[in-house]
Design goal:
Blueprint (H helix, E strand, L loop, with lengths): L55 H20 L4 H30 L7 H20 L8 H28 L5 H16 L17
Helix pairs in contact: 1-2, 1-4, 1-5, 2-3, 2-5, 3-4
């Protein structure tokens, strides 16, 4: 009886190898973005002498106007003692101011602006000088003291309005170098303010010659 061939061992199913992981290209880190360039600052507009400021001569006269106006305003509600102090301060300031205008400013612009305008300014100065002379001789106790200072303030207010609204505008368009003129006026102002004799008699020029 033929012997049976031995059975071959059962073949185990082949284990499929796990698919190899796909190689992924290493990503390069994104380059940092450069910060946006700041816009170059714009150059400021060129300044011109005629924009944004008054020339020196006009600026000086306007500053005097504002200072005197503030004193007259203060006078309205001041004590009797303070009123006398204000009268002395305004008188001194107006003496210097009118002298500078008559000696330097008016002659420089007289032929460059409307005819007769400077002469009118001189006449208004004379009226103010009349009142200043009277106020200088008062003690503050007189019945008419307040009235005279008040009238002086009104006269000066009218004078200032005409100068700033008409004369100064024409002067700025006249072609006169008002910055150089302002330097001359500043030097003369310092000289007058330091001259004690001027406040007594020197400012009366023009008043006594009428």
């Amino acid at each position: 009886m033929a012997s049976k061939a031995p059975k071959s061992p059962a073949k185990k199913p082949a284990v499929k190898a796990a698919p190899a992981a796909k190689k992924t290209a290493a990503r390069k880190p994104a380059a940092a973005k450069a910060p946006p360039k700041a816009a170059a600052p714009k150059a400021p507009p060129a300044k011109t002498a005629s924009r944004g400021r008054d020339p020196a001569a006009i600026a000086m006269l306007k500053a005097d106007h504002r200072a005197v106006s503030a004193l007259f305003k203060e006078f309205e509600d001041a004590s009797d003692k303070r009123k006398l102090e204000i009268a002395r301060e305004t008188s001194q300031m107006l003496k210097v101011h009118t002298t500078i205008e008559e000696e330097i400013f008016y002659p420089a612009i007289k032929d460059k602006i409307e005819e007769g305008m400077v002469n009118e300014g001189v006449v208004e100065h004379a009226s103010a000088k009349d009142l200043i002379a009277q106020i200088d001789g008062m003690t503050g106790d007189e019945e008419l003291f307040d009235a005279k200072v008040t009238v002086l303030g009104e006269l000066i207010e009218h004078h200032v309005e005409e100068e700033e609204e008409e004369m100064f505008k024409q002067a700025k368009a006249s072609g006169v170098d008002l910055d150089v003129l302002g330097e001359q006026m500043a030097a003369r102002k310092a000289e007058l303010e330091g001259d004690k004799s001027f406040s007594l008699t020197g400012w009366l020029k023009g008043l006594t010659e009428r």
